[in-house]
Amino acid sequence: MQTGIGAREAALSTQDLSAYYGERKAVGEFSIGFRRNAVTALIGPSGCGKTTLLRCLNRIHEVGFDAHVEGSVLLEGQDIYLNGVDPMSIRRRVGMVFQRPNPFPTLSILDNALACAPRGLNRQQKLEAAEKALRSAALWDEVKDKLRTSPLRLSGGQQQRLCIARAVAAEPEVLLMDEPTGSLDPIATAVIEELMHSLAEKFTIVAVTHNMQQAARVSDVTAFMLADESGVGRLIEIDDTGKLFTKPGDPRTEDYITGRFG
Amino acid sequence: MALRYRRLRQRRAFGLLGTALALFCAILAAGALLAILGYVVVQGVAAINWAFLTQLPHPVGVPGGGVGNGILGTFIIIGIATAMAVPIGLLTGIYLALFGRGVVPEALRFMSDVLSGVPSIAIGLFAYAVLVAPLKHFSALSASFAFMMLMLPLLVRTSEQAIRSVPQTVREGALALGMSNFRATVRIVLPTARPAIITALLLAIARVTGETAPLLFTAFGSQYWEANPNNPMAVLALQVFNYAISPYPNWQAQAWAGALLLVVAVFVLSLGARLMLRRAMRGLES
Fold first, then answer.
1. Please, which pLDDT band fits residue A2 given cuts at 50, 70 and 90?
2. Does B170 touch chain A (CB under 8 A)?
3. Mutate which of B101, B177, B182, B188 to test chain A, going by most A C-beta atoms within 10 A?
4. Which residues pair with A224 in a beta bridge?
5. Residue-range domains of chain A with CATH
6. Which of A37, A47, A149, B277 is the most buried (most CB within 10 A)?
7. pLDDT per residue as tens digits for the range B171-180
8. What is the pTM of this model?
9. CATH architecture of the domain with range B68-285
């Protein structure tokens, strides 16, 4: 199976992973490895199962009605779908940022940043944790004077960085990003892309993106997905980003990145 | 071309006719409400004064007196009913919103809908059968019990709706970072739904404020100041009923004044509910 990298390099990998919504198979027999401390971009046309695959990686897929998963996902070699594994403990290690900023509307900016942080910190430690998270999301300077106000007054880009800070504060190992700039303007997008680079020093990042330029800009590794005739998302090819975009190994990848479809 | 034009004219005429008809019906509906409001105000406002709001009823033939004990009783009975209905209704609503698929939730929803359609007098009879008859005395508590049953279906369905209207993305945002289902519900989902839930509560209170039928054989009424929920108690709606069917003009005037108080209370509650709802919508938009 072509996973692009050896098992030792992978912080997170899947083996023969299939994801279902009821009877419908959205992702099929997927085997892929995500390199530690790198940004891996998942690209492919709409409806090819990118988001579904991402949602399987921290067991949030199964929260949806009638959704289930077959196969396995290995986090540092441990299967997160084994019986007895607590999905909550997995989601703390594999955080997620969504396409649309979804700050908790009734909590202050400060409480948003801390909502999913480890429990049992005292006041001082909490403030420090919040500052650290907001700094690593490049938001601290913009919100430090209004930590107690509502996040809904922030711009879309600031809200999204708050969501990143919230995920970072949970101290995960892997950060999943589902089109993190999908609803943002170009300037806010540039800020988030910058951020993804710096976050990769600490985390393993898997990002879904619609936008091939973005994949080329932010990722170290790119995986191309496509739905087959029966609508099941398949991995076509994964490679170093530079190589995939210049010398794709599969004609379908070439068709996609040269804009012949999708 | 000519044919097309004729059709266009026809459509326009129909459209105009429809609009006119809709407008006429709207005026009719709003007019009925305004007529009732206006009539109650005209009839009732003369008898309203400080004594009316604060004093006990006077015996037949003695002028003056008021419905102070009935106002107090209304607050007590609705207060107790609310205290009972809120936890049950809210928890059921949470259950239906978060785990609402399958046979049991569907059955619950159906029963709740049926309960909301049961005539209030039947619910009063039920309260009489299970509380008044066995204990051998009328009580405010039995009235609260009946009111609770009237409020429950409203609270259950509206709090379910309120919780469902919290965007799934907000709840998933909490779950996807390892928050437990319980914590996500209590800390994130419920506070987001709170304005809508309070709206529902205000409407449920408005719904029972004017209820009279279930009170006839539960609270029963009283001539005295009564604050013990285990005793029969005066209630404003009941006083309106009794005064209205009496042959004495000054009681009839007081019935109108009491009716005005009830209408104003419902009006204020509905207005409050509207304002809360507007706040809720604003909160969810951004």
1. very low
2. yes
3. B177
4. A43, A237
5. 7-257 (3.40.50.300)
6. B277
7. 999 999 999 9
8. 0.79
9. Orthogonal Bundle (1.10)
